[in-house]
Amino acid sequence: MAVLGLALALAAVALPARGLVGPDAPPPADRVEIVPVEGEAAKYWSRWRGPSGQGLVAGTNYPDRWSATENVLWRTAVPGDGNSSPIVWGDRIFLTTSRDGGAKLSLLCFRRSDGERLWETFAPTEGVEHAHEKNGHASATPVTDGRRIWASFGTHGLAAFDFDGKLVWHRDLGDLDNYHGSAGSPVLHDGRIYLYQDIRPTATLKSFVAAFDAETGETVWWQDREASVGWGTPVVIRAGDREELIVNSQRQVWAYDPRSGEPLWWARGTTREVIPTPVAGHGLVFCSSGRAGPTLAIRPGGTGDVTDTHVVWSMPKGSPFVPSPLLVGDVLYLVNDMQSIVTAYRATTGEVLFQGRLGVAQREGFSASPVHVDGQVFFTNDQGETFVLAAGDEFTLLHVNTLGERTLASPALVDGRWYFRTARELLAIGE
């Protein structure tokens, strides 16, 4: 495929860096990162987008070729419907699912070695949350620390389970009215579960970002928000000597103090509908928004409205609607799921390095977020086609793998194996 010289490749709007001092001074370039999991958790895929929190896979010996039969070690049926991604700890795989049109929601546990389903535990539910057909009722990926599993069920609340499937606690968060349904995944950090839900406000409930005690489910802090719609997952970053909870959301990107919930800074420029999870590196946080809308590269560590001082560069068009960005070295990859086009940027400057077509152009054709494995980047579309590119400054499409099933969930990767959730099955792929 030839590199595409498209109108989409607009020059980045590079905003001048300011010589800031004091509390707004930029953190060192090598000190901005999504806080990774540590210890035993680093061996597994315990959360949305894995140990790094941004789809970067350590290790080698992962196959880069597969089909519906090639390199498939096992496959098992997944009851119900759902787009939540699998998470892995030890010999266990967990994911959520929905039955009876969203009336029943549950957490499933499978044995990783052979795919056998071990248990299913239903969450307390009452009524049915309205959801878009593509979103569904089980889109939030759970998170685990090897002892508990936490899962968000949207309007049916937040729940914790043990490894035997026992419901440990459940929190009713109110009637969440989002016109496409709920989707954001919970984040575990420092003994707390972080979650944000942007909804249509009512007389008793507004959009919010909150922290809950992981052991008990009790509210640690709760911050109301003014946004009215959104489906994203927050990230906790380390920026210099402080941590920030980043919420990429409607019209603005927000940073909160993870300890207190107090707003630290915000930057304007995102669109009305925001889904992609931010990534971080090179002293910046990268936030994409809305149906082919802007991508912002923001220097964290500021105070108040930092739109004019900390947005280092912005790209006005071409962002993904659903998939999250992928940052590999100094290259930022975005797949525009409205046209099936991948664009690579120089992360530090916003320079467009290349663009290329990934299959047939189609509206909202990608949902899974990309991953980087052993010098290659992998983009999976909704038809189960995975486009394998060589990581780097040039568009080099190596080959395309086809599962032959609808695939909206992002994969989990552990010990040389890929774990894919399709519309009907859970598959293990390895050599």
Compute the gyration radius: what is it? 20 Å
Q: Which regions are unreliable across 5 or more consecutive residues at pLDDT < 50?
A: 1-24
Task: Look up the CATH topology.
Answer: Methylamine Dehydrogenase, Chain H
Shape: globular
Euclidean distance between termini CA atoms: 28 Å
Q: What does this protein look like?
A:
With about 425 residues, the protein is mostly beta strands. It has one domain: YVTN repeat-like/Quinoprotein amine dehydrogenase (Methylamine Dehydrogenase, Chain H, 7 Propeller), CATH 2.130.10. The chain is built from one helix and 36 strands. The strands form eight sheets. It has a six-stranded mixed β-sheet. A five-stranded antiparallel β-sheet has the order 1-25-23-22-21. A hairpin with a 6-residue loop joins strand 22 and strand 23. The protein starts with 12 loop residues before the first strand and ends with a strand. The N terminus is likely disordered.
Provide a short characterization of the protein structure.
With 431 residues, the protein is mostly beta strands. It has one helix at residues 307-310; strands at residues 13-14, 32-34, 56-57, 72-77, 87-89, 92-99, 104-111, 117-122, 143-144, 148-152, 158-162, 167-171, 187-189, 192-197, 207-213, 219-225, 235-239, 242-248, 252-256, 263-268, 279-281, 284-288, 295-298, 304-305, 311-315, 326-328, 331-336, 341-346, 352-357, 371-373, 376-380, 385-390, 397-402, 412-414, 417-421, 425-429.
SSE layout and pairing:
Blueprint: E1 13-14, E2 32-34, E3 56-57, E4 72-77, E5 87-89, E6 92-99, E7 104-111, E8 117-122, E9 143-144, E10 148-152, E11 158-162, E12 167-171, E13 187-189, E14 192-197, E15 207-213, E16 219-225, E17 235-239, E18 242-248, E19 252-256, E20 263-268, E21 279-281, E22 284-288, E23 295-298, E24 304-305, H1 307-310, E25 311-315, E26 326-328, E27 331-336, E28 341-346, E29 352-357, E30 371-373, E31 376-380, E32 385-390, E33 397-402, E34 412-414, E35 417-421, E36 425-429
